[in-house]
Here is the input.
Amino acid sequence: MVSMVKILSANGSSKKRLEEVRKVFSTLIGNYAPDVLAIEEPLSFWTKQSRFLDVVINEIKCLAKKQRIKVYNFSPLAVRKTICGNDRATKKNVAELVSSIYPELKNRLNQDRRSKELYWGHMFDAVGLGVCYLKIRQKQNA
Here is the structure.
């Protein structure tokens, strides 16, 4: 399983930012050749930024389908319930459980700098999505 966080620029026009999404996605596909993509559905709130996020997610789904990559969508509540057994679990609870599965991540639980904390928070979310997908797949195959 490969998991990574790529933080894209929030600057520039929507067109320029979508081009960056396409470029990053193509590079990742070229480097890792995945057959599955797990996406966490964004929480619904009506802002200009969240509408653009919907456009980005739809673009990524279209690009994945063109590459014959299966796309799985999970709500944040579904991820928490699948990983922690509780849909009211916090991001910290998910991170702690993920680090119990992958002990090499344990030292990243309590980062002291805000930007590193944000990055590693996203990383735990990404790994959590992968764990969620694997657990659901395991149940389906049982």
